[in-house]
């Protein structure tokens, strides 16, 4: 069964990975409600700094909006403050310029500088396992020849 989702994961103390997916049924419902084609709707991510708060979407310490393209389903948000908590909304801006949230992510706490989270560490290990052995010898211009 398909479902709408938005999820955030810490990548580093100052970077989040965000991915989202809306079902075709939801897109069609929104098209009908806004009386416009899905591709014409202005989609946005709204990042909330919710450090020290019980986040319900109505208040946050700071808010950033990021316009997204129709073909995007993930992004990396960098240059964030370490040791802070963040929540994310996915939504659209209607013809009158009003923000309408469609779905809300989990709240994620970024670790202090120099600290790696279990999620980040395990994701790094998964990536490292899939890299070919020759990758650390590869440069943008040539392969480094090893002397035996």
Automatic annotation (TrEMBL):
Top-level taxon: Bacteria
Entries under InterPro entries matching the protein: DUF4912
Name of the protein: DUF4912 domain-containing protein
Organism encoding this protein: Marinicrinis sediminis
